[in-house]
Design brief:
The protein is α/β, with parallel strands linked by helices. 39% of the residues lie in helices and 17% in strands. α2 runs parallel beside α3 (93-106), α3 (93-106) packs across α4 and α4 (127-145) runs parallel beside α5. The longest helix has 19 residues, at 127-145. The mean pLDDT is 91.
Amino acid sequence: MTAPQAVPPEISWFGALCDDDYEVLGVPDQRLVSSVEHCEAIVSEADRLGFDNVLLPSGYALGIDTVAFAAAVARTTKQIRLLVAVRAGEVWPPQLARQLATLDHLLGGRLTINVISSDLPGESLDPGPRYQRTIETVEIIRDLLDGRSTDRSGDFYDLHLDPPRVATVSGGCPPIYVGGLSEHAREMAARVADVYLMWPDTEERVAAVVADLRARAASHGRTLRFGYRVHVVVRETEGQARDAARHLVSALDPDEGKAIRSRSLDATSTGVARQAELRDLADADGYLESVLWTGIGRARSGCGAAIVGDPSQVATKLERYRALGMDAFILSGYPHLDECRRFAQLVLPLLEHAPLSI
């Protein structure tokens, strides 16, 4: 394993608000359908087990409302942060800022924000305008949550507005996480993100993207943190982990997998195209690198690969990503509640990790 890094990593789990929980991918299971009760159980368990944060995803067709769900579970959690996904443009930015400030109070200062540059339901914008809308949205939210008046005339918003009375616990804007692999997405992240999120890729490509984003951010007088969104399949032995990975896709019909992927609003994005390219580059068993398995992407859009192995192999792979610049990991596995427990038991003790302080 590589030498310990200066700052402990942020280890986060995934709250499956988007109907993405299975025992076997592509085979619906009524026990695992996204509901307030099921998703709350995942968040509660991640909180109990010592994860730092939990991503609450957002999807128009696939899931329940993220902000409403976060408010519902805010008072039942103790230490975990909530990474609340919001879609730029779906909510008027001043109203969104007020919602987020209120939510941060409910959490006692434990809010983090994932801003998504997705098309809106029923709309299709070209990438340039879509990412410009995200830039304007984030700048307005940051102004208002930092307690400043916002005074701007942009392509999407013409606003000259004082901040609302309600403020966050800290009096400042919580960290903003964004993702996206295209040229427009990278420029947006360099300008407005606190944390740039990546989906799985080869270590060589991860290093190249980190270097590129660091240079872009520096050109704007900024610095970025980096996060990595990846699935995990961990078992006590490598053989058991690979067997579990095969089981996940053992009943997957190719047409059903294609249908699942196409339902996502980001199904045609540059990042999704790269995940498909990685599947094409993988070996016959779906492995791209020794423990990076792309088979999981056959049945979902977005993040399309998993770290598969025994506890030491999984921990070592995460530490290798840390050495490349990653300090935030958003992990998931199927079923999400079961894999959350396995990871906490088998891998978390091997990482230089302690829950983040507020």
